[in-house]
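Hi,

I'm pasting everything inline rather than attaching a file, because the server keeps stripping attachments. The sequence lines come first, and each chain or strand is labelled.
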Amino acid sequence: MIGSAVPRKEDAALLTGRGTFVDDIHRPGLLHMVYVHSTEAHALVTGIDTEEARSLPGVLGVWTARDFADLPPRPSVPGLERGYLAGDKVHYVGEPVAVVVAADRYTAADAARAVRVAYEPLPVMATVADALAPGAVPIFAPLPGNLALEQQVTPDDVTADLAAAPHRLRARLVNQRCAGTPIEPYGVLADWTGAGPTVWATVQAPHRVRAEIAERFGLARHLVRVIAPDVGGAFGVKSSFMPELFLAPELSRRLGRPVKYVETRGEHMVHTYHGRDQIQDVEVGFDAEGRILAMDVTITVNIGGVPDPVGIGLATLTSYMLGGCYRIPKIAARYRSVVTNTTPTASYRGAGRPEASFLIERVVDLVARELGEDPADVRKVNLIQPEEMPYQTPFEGIVYDEADYPAALDLLLGELDYAALRAEQARRLADPAAPLLGVGLSTFVEMGGFGPTPLFEQFGYLGGWESANVRMQPDGSVIVLVGTAPHGQGHQTALAQIVADQLNVPFDAISVLYGDTAVVQEGTGTMGSRGMPVAGNAVRQAAVEVAAKARTIAAHMLEAEADDVVPVGDGFQIKGVPEATVTMAEVAVRAFKPHLLPEGTALGLEHTAYYEPKNLSYPSGAHGCVVEIDRDTGRVTVLRYVCVDDCGTVINPLTARGQIHGGVAQGIAQALYEKVAFDPGGRPLAASLEDYMVPGPLDLPSYETHHIETKSSFNPLGAKGLGEAGATAAPQAVVNAVVDALAHLGVRDVEMPCTPERVWKVMHDAR
Amino acid sequence: MRVEITVNGQPHTREVEPRLLLVHFLRDTLSLTGTHIGCDTSSCGACTVLLDGVAVKSCTVLAAQADGRAVTTIEGLAGEDGLSPVQEGFRQCHGLQCGFCTPGMVMAATALLAERPDPTEQEIRNGLKGNMCRCTGYQMIVESVRWAAANGGAR
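And the predicted assembly:
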């Protein structure tokens, strides 16, 4: 079954309106919770008048920060502990200030609007430049310079290497702030019955959420049940510990009724955490052929108004991946995480790695441009060769697994018909009536398969492993429990394919369950492209054990040695004796008959496996983008988008293609359309889908997808992960194409998003 | 106020607040939770239903405006013989991932095929321009609709 493009098990319910998303769940006596959000970017809160709100019929109460003073803080950066609501001070527009509960959602919204908050404005620092300026007002008392973290990632000093390099160049690159905008906004329903709460939530790691809730309320974990039902997209933004995860259970406890919170899209745009937002200063030394000799990088990250414990350190991952798929002997990397009066930033699809890939791929193009060389040739000079794998990067512990970067680039150039494109580009350049043509390349590598445990512990997780239980029923059907919590990836389907192969049972006889801490043993969750490389291997390992036990039982039934019994058709036979067979269903029944089992064999046919990855995996590939630019308006149109992807073993080509498409779409969106902007006063300029440009069907191209499959030796399945590859590879493929189309004007860079206005201005200024 | 709305062939008479949105009438009053809410600016199309056969965003229609009219939701598409061609097309061509935009997307595609039984790629993209999907990048949705066009259309 591995490698076959079967339609998904998930689809029947989702296509008929029978999915179960958080807001679809109703409990008797259900109450609705709504926030009052700060309308100020930086201000003292001098008073909150809740009287009118409380007086509305149907309102059960209004609560402010002091009402939750006894609750230990949310998972926080040490020294910058975060509560649940803003107290005496607000740090960004959208920060929750108060919470209202009412009998229905309309009344709750009315009441939230009736709460009056009095503010005394403070100076606003909406950018890192403002926050780091000499004399800037500290947003947090413990951070006098608004610098939350400064990290030297490698001890290397490359000053001498850069000085000795035949050529050098510097660049400042901006990776703008993006919003995840899953189409389902964040939601929580908490019902505190008896000794503890049941919490349905749009989250990516229910077991971690259970642990955090239990800790806050002083409960043992068995008293807390967290369920991530169908989750309508997440893209990393549903992995942060939002206050509602704790406020809904607490208010359910106080009120003795179930409490639901579902954010509006307007709230999502200012309240749920954003991603990216890096300024990258790079200096690179290279030789006459474009061989990169040394690189010095300083990254400045805008982590927003109430630092997130993951967001504060994400640039560590950016630093690790700065070398991309190139043999760069020395890299000096450091970063600064800066607090500002904006919504906090944390994980968004790729979480730190797309920023690195963007940097190095833009740098390679700049080097090519500086030397007058073709960007494809400069890539070829620098690419790590397949025989160098596994490759130790300049960063300790960062070792790339098997891949063939040059083969991916060659396949891409062939599929693009690169030489013909260059000829067409020259033809158009000579014809003032023709739109400009640009070709952009992106040979990328990223990290997938998160853990291992020592890395994941740094992000607050119990481990980086994943768990799986494979259990055969007495009728030969199989239930798989897995610790991931997918939100569109299709784990029911892909994991069943893995089990079908190991157990020799039909795909339709396998069900995969996840997302409920009362059903699944311990689990880690779905993030960091870890579904197939980590959970896939856990499931495989459990299935291998079950298959071995089934074979032992079959041998006993056939009165043969286990070594002489082989799987055939729907069961087992004695090797070379076709008439000596038992079916899997017969073996399954036998597993529950103690008096008929071999001596010392335990009852039942199941196994629980915990798979700890030895290392990260490194999905890679080569993407190419062809754009056309209108000479009069600056409008960029993507004519072709070609991907060559190497995610190792492909479990299901249909869902793999979907993952690549979706990632590329988000990457193109970052390159051309999306930006979370603030005015100098910290007011959000992208607070709705009218202002934040999530692309629609007319805004994106068709994608041409190709695979090369280099299995990873780091795990038995050989899978590397692919959920984040597209989003990692695409932004710079597009931007390189845009800059390429304008290169004849002397244009060196166009900042994302490459909107018509920005491109037109760049063209205009260059003339 | 009292409204009488036929939903998926069943008439429903209810007392509602004048400001009640059709999408909340469907989801909260009738417990038909297949129709989803993804935004508050009529941008995303997750709430698309058919009102007298025409695709509308039910977050932008008051229940009062649907009084005396017929609504078809995602729950009303599949028949006793299984999924509608559009639903089956989405299944065959992996036109959905998380499934949250899907009901709106399927309803919009159904309305499109009723009007244009054999649309080109551009016509499909144009017909679905009021619907956002964050997972698929749209190409496999386009392929799903083409599959449906070739296998029974809007039925």
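The longest strand of chain B covers residues 2-7.

If the labels don't parse on your end, tell me and I'll reformat.
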